[in-house]
């Protein structure tokens, strides 16, 4: 158990580092299509390395879960599905015109929103349409989707499996009824167990997403949730920290009060209890917030040191490029990022006009590429080694100085050029990365930009 002083000292607002630089520090505030298409056109693939990951954002949800931080569009009107799929396919066609190589899709993930809001035949049309524009073959590609247990049908499971999907992530959050009412996400254990078993029977590997730090969550209540989760034994579990940022996410997170949330120490105790229970049940702790059974591909990638991290979170694939399709989706071509329009109407209108609808982005400098790699190493492997490059000696020294406090507190060890988180330091990995983050260096960082690190 981590002591109170350490938690209080380090529980400060900080990025989650799905990218570096983090989105609030992106400098291309008005990135447009023409600039982005030039950046795409300038990609130089080395050794014919044309592998990409594809993320497709399917934004519709039938009702609002009040804890949610995703870009979504609440509607019960399913007539919107078809036109949206058309837009995504057109966007992908635009990428075929502007990418200077023919991509090999290694990984395709449907996120949202609620991908299972869409009729399975629309998803089939989408995925087959995507692959028909490259080489038509879906294999060998890892296909996965996020699913709401309440809107996932037998048809979803069977049709998506026929197309090639093999992994499904169910959004569970917490089984406690009081918590579920507060977050407006009612789903019983029986309902989840039924769809979980059906997914297994259909041949899927199943992930569960849980959230700690939600309103009215208690140690006993969450213990119950973890026990139920262990009974179902999903292959992977993501145990996310609830990001309470109502000033960013608007009224959706104002259905409850700050006072209803478990406080720093209580929240940490909930995490640590879940952590111990999952380890005892045979799961391996991976990166910042994931757990997987030893035979899961993510466990193997973690143990082999080949795991990677991108905007989708931890992944077994390490592709040099990730293209995001759909409203609000982010693309990453390693040297630059771009994000699509977050407004669905304007997203679709621009696509109809033959424009990839990016609205902001960032082009990474040499230094940022260097720091990006260090942060990626730390988030995936809890250690990194400074490169022997005379251009960055001064920066390396500054980072070492910033790490001194964490070393004194027993969270980090440095030997020569290797920086390693101690076991005690692992929950503070975001704080360790913050010592490397050049954007947090000199300016007074607006504390409202990020959720708290613990
Ligand atoms: S948690 Fe999922 S289902 Fe709920 S509003 Fe957010 S994206 Fe939609």
Query: How would a crystallographer describe the biggest sheet?
Result: 9 strands, mixed
- Output the structural class: alpha/beta
**Count the strands?**
19
- Termini separation: 13 Å
Distinct bound molecules: iron/sulfur cluster
CATH architecture label name of the largest domain? Alpha-Beta Horseshoe
Quickly count the helices: 16
- Count up the domains: 2
The dominant shape is globular
Radius of gyration: 22 Å
| Helix percentage range | 25-40%
CATH topology descriptor of the largest domain:
pyruvate-formate lyase- activating enzyme
Could you state the CATH homologous superfamily of the largest domain? tm_1862 like domain
Unreliably modeled segments: none
Oligomer: single chain
Strand order of the largest sheet: 9-10-8-7-6-5-4-1-13
The chain-level mean pLDDT equals 92
Q: What is the beta-strand fraction? A: 15-25%
Task: Report on the architecture of this protein.
With 454 residues, this protein is α/β, with parallel strands linked by helices. It folds into two domains: 22-260 and 280-363, tm_1862 like domain (pyruvate-formate lyase- activating enzyme), CATH 3.80.30; 366-449, Arc Repressor Mutant, subunit A (Orthogonal Bundle). The protein is built from 16 helices and 19 strands. The protein has a nine-stranded mixed sheet, with helices on both faces. A three-stranded antiparallel sheet has the order 14-15-16, with helices on one face. Helix 4 (120-132) links the parallel strand 4 (104-112) and strand 5. Helix 8 (219-232) packs parallel to helix 10 (264-280). It is globular and about 55 Å long. The two termini are 13 Å apart. The model has no long low-confidence stretch (mean pLDDT 92). Bound molecules: iron/sulfur cluster. Residues 61, 64-65, 68, 70, 72, 112-114, 148, 171 line the site of iron/sulfur cluster (SF4).
């Amino acid at each position: 158990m981590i002591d109170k002083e350490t938690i209080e000292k380090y529980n400060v607002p900080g990025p989650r580092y799905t990218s570096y630089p983090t989105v609030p520090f992106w400098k291309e505030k008005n990135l447009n299509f023409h600039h982005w298409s030039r950046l795409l056109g300038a990609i130089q693939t080395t050794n014919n390395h044309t592998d990409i990951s594809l993320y497709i954002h399917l934004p519709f949800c039938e009702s609002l879960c009040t804890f949610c931080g995703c870009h979504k569009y609440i509607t019960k009107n399913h007539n919107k599905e078809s036109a949206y799929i058309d837009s995504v396919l057109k966007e992908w066609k635009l990428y075929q015109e502007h990418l200077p190589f023919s991509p090999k899709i290694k990984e395709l993930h449907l996120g949202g929103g609620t991908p299972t809001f869409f009729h399975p035949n629309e998803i089939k049309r989408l995925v087959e349409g995507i692959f028909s524009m490259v080489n038509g073959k879906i294999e060998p590609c890892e296909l996965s989707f996020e699913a709401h247990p309440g809107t996932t049908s037998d048809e979803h499971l069977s049709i998506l499996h026929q197309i090639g999907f093999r992994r499904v992530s169910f959004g569970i959050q917490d089984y406690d009824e009081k918590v579920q009412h507060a977050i407006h996400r009612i789903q019983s254990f029986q309902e989840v167990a039924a769809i979980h078993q059906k997914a297994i029977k259909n041949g899927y590997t199943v992930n569960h997403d849980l959230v700690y730090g939600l309103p009215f969550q208690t140690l006993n209540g969450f213990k119950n949730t973890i026990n139920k989760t262990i009974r179902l034994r999903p292959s992977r579990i993501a145990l996310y920290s609830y990001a309470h940022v109502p000033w960013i996410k608007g009224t959706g997170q104002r259905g409850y009060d700050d006072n209803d949330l478990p406080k720093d120490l209580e929240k940490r105790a909930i995490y640590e209890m879940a952590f111990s229970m999952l380890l005892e049940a045979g799961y391996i702790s991976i990166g910042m917030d994931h757990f997987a059974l030893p035979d899961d591909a993510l466990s193997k990638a973690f143990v082999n040191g080949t795991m990677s991290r991108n905007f989708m979170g931890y992944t077994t694939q390490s592709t040099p490029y990730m293209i995001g399709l759909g409203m609000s989706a982010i693309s990453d071509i390693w040297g630059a990022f771009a994000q699509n329009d977050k407004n669905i109407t304007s997203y679709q209108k621009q696509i109809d006009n033959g424009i990839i609808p990016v609205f902001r982005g960032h082009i990474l400098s040499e230094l940022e590429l260097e720091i990006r790699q260090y942060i990626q190493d730390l988030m995936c492997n809890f250690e990194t080694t400074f490169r022997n490059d005379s251009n960055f000696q001064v920066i390396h020294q500054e980072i070492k100085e910033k790490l001194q406090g964490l070393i004194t507190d027993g969270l980090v060890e440095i030997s020569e050029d290797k920086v390693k988180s101690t076991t005690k330091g692992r929950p503070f990995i975001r704080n360790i990365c913050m010592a490397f983050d050049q954007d947090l260096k000199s300016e007074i960082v607006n504390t409202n930009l990020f959720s708290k690190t613990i």
